[in-house]
Predict the 3D structure of the following.
Amino acid sequence: MEHDEKGCRFNLMADGQAGGYIIYEVCDGCFDIQHTVVYPELRGNGLGEVLVAAATEYAESKGFRMMPTCSYAKRLLSLRGP
């Protein structure tokens, strides 16, 4: 996992190749996961969950409130509960 904080992006490598990424925005103390992408050839391996977990851990470590607009991240975080 690589975090490009300046670019507001988490990049995931899997087996030596790009596996996917998350794009986020921070505004007024809120952390908005805007897009979660896992490349088609690697889908179904839980990589989206890994990306969302990394972004969530980062946001929580900074004290941000989670406000995802990405439907996948929103659904995954709602399953996690408060």
